[in-house]
Amino acid sequence: MPGANERAMEKAKSIPADGVILDLEDSVAPEGKDAARIQVCDAVKAGGYGKREVIIRVNGLDTSWGRADILAAVEAGPDAILVPKINTATDVTQVTNAMKEAGGGPSIALWAMMETPLAMLNAKEIAAEAAKPNVPLSCFVMGTN
Residue 105: which pLDDT band, with cuts at 50, 70 and 90? Predict the structure, then answer.
C-alpha cells in the first residue's frame, strides 16, 4: 500500500490478506517521503491490522531517506522491514547494523528485496547471512520487474 495514501492504508485493515506492505519507496514521490514516513509509522503504531503481518518497505540506505526510514520503522515496531535493492551480503550487514543502531531487536524481521541480476548471482551469500547470530534476515522478496 502506498505510504502516502492514508485511504489505502486504512483499507488494508479490511482486505483478505495474510500481510500488508506499507510502502515508503517507489510509490511515494520524493517530496512526499517525510510525510509518508510519519503517516506509515503512525498507522503501524496505532494497529488495527488484525492478524495480518505488517511490513514497512523503506528506501534503500543509499538514498537520503533510508536511514531515517529505518530509524522510524524500528520505532514503529512492524513485523518486518523490507529493504529494496539488496545486492550483496554486505548490504544485509549494513541494514542489520542500521536496525541495531535504531534499537531494533529480534522481534523485527528483515526482508530483502532481490531486484537485480547481481542480487540473483549473490543469492547464496545473501541467504547465508540469515545463519549468523543477530541477523534478522528471514525473507526474500523478488522484484522481477
Answer: confident
Note the pLDDT tens digit of each residue in 118-136. 999 999 999 999 999 999 9
**Three-state secondary-structure class, residue 11:** helix
Q: With helix as H, strand as E and coil as C, how does 23-35 read?
A: ECCCCCCHHHHHH
Count the residues in the chain: 145
Q: Return d(Cα 142, Cα 76) in angstroms, integer.
A: 25
All 3 cell numbers of residue 1?
A: 500500500
Q: With 0.90 as the threshold, say if the pTM is over it.
A: yes
- Map 45-84 to HEC letters: HHCCCCCCEEEEECCCCCCCCHHHHHHHHHHHCCCEEEEC
Amino acid at 79: D
Phi, psi of 59 (to 5 degrees): -80, 155
Give the C-alpha separation, 107 to 114, whole Å.
22
User: What is 81-134 written as a DSSP string?
Assistant: EEES---SHHHHHHHHHHHHHTT--TTSEEEEEE-SHHHHHTHHHHHHGGGSTT
pLDDT of residue 106: 84
